[in-house]
């Protein structure tokens, strides 16, 4: 490594957004250096745990059915965010996903049709063949073939800003402090979800009980450094992509296999055996990302999903086996719940469930009456043994506090001025578009779209 070399584009991060930026900048003729905090075996950030990308399309493709147009996509996003989104940037992202798949395929990414358990996404989401790890490997192979230089085990300590201009990056590469210079910089280093002390500033002591689904390297060091130097922030530090995952998952890096998709067909109770939210509010891809926050608000940040044998094959199971019993009381004992209280809750739910035509593929209207909270769909009595239970914990994927950008991915200062040579893509700027809530596959959409924009604009700026 020539430490005196001045690259055209320096990309901070090693996941989907960073690699899209690096490949795009290199294809535009720029010299590019990628700094990945993780060692090579764990490269790729959260992207290696992903499965799909939500893509607008006007006609069926090899892996997407029917059509998914801008207005429907926008309406889906509007509903999950409650309007907390920048419409200009959101619609820009939505439109640009129409061109994302050809770019990805040119980089060696391969797709597959939706599998059993994900068929309700067949119209909206393109699934990666081999998952996120295969996607990341394809991007790295493409970047290396194009001549992108990559440093692993390299943490960026600071991007030294001087009146909105990045003069150099202070780094620690394989344990040694260094300085790297580049004409332009793309920050794609993720959120701060792996920084429990920072999470506790917004969530209090409850954050100690959070599980981090993705990379343990997302400490938010670059984000904190930029905010401390006067870069404009966007988003709420307490908002994040938080899903209910299996409570037996590891503290870090459990990935998507620890996610639990049984909630719509279950009742979910807290440690006191009490239900606390409508499990059947909407189809799972539009509601799964609210359940991490819901569980986080319960005592000890724990909950339990209870199903009967009829629902066992209706969802993709966790990597951990269900806890089972032939009686509700026996299941309660195995879960550490009060058997009398759980049996009472189940009896009350069963009595309130209105008989109807159960259909797991759509909003079926099978609901409860006279029960608080109500269950508005898939309210089928839990009555056929054996009964199964799963412990739930909040699983944090990424945080929404980030840096503010314009439509060209240029980072803005607190006074509204654009920085001179700093761009951003991915989770570090996603709060501009995701104020709260989540839409399945949309994080990858943001990273891909703004990674390509940032790479294009950084290369253009470097040439000029």
Give structural notes.
Residues 8-433 form the FAD-dependent oxidoreductase 2 FAD-binding domain. GO terms for molecular function: oxidoreductase activity. This is FAD-dependent tricarballylate dehydrogenase TcuA. Its cofactor is FAD. Strands 1, 2, 6, 7, 8, 9, 18 and 19 form an eight-stranded mixed beta sheet that branches. Strands 10, 12, 13, 14, 15 and 16 form a six-stranded mixed beta sheet that branches. This protein has a three-stranded antiparallel beta sheet with strand order 3-5-4. It has two domains: 6-237 and 400-463, FAD/NAD(P)-binding domain; 242-395, Succinate dehydrogenase/fumarate reductase flavoprotein, catalytic domain (Flavocytochrome C3, Chain A, domain 1, Alpha-Beta Complex), CATH 3.90.700. It is 27% helix and 22% strand. Strand 1, helix 1 (16-27) and strand 2 form a beta-alpha-beta unit. The relative contact order is 0.20. With 464 residues, the chain is an alpha/beta fold.
Largest sheet: 8 strands, mixed
How many domains? The number is 2
Measured as a percent range, the helix fraction is 25-40%
Radius of gyration: 23 Å
In the CATH scheme, the class of the largest domain would be: Alpha Beta
Distance between the termini: 26 Å
- Mean of residue pLDDT? 95
Q: What's the architecture of the largest domain in CATH terms?
A: 3-Layer(bba) Sandwich
Quaternary form = single chain
Return residue spans where pLDDT drops below 50 for at least 5 consecutive residues.
none
CATH superfamily of the largest domain: FAD/NAD(P)-binding domain
Strand content: 15-25%
Give the number of helices.
11
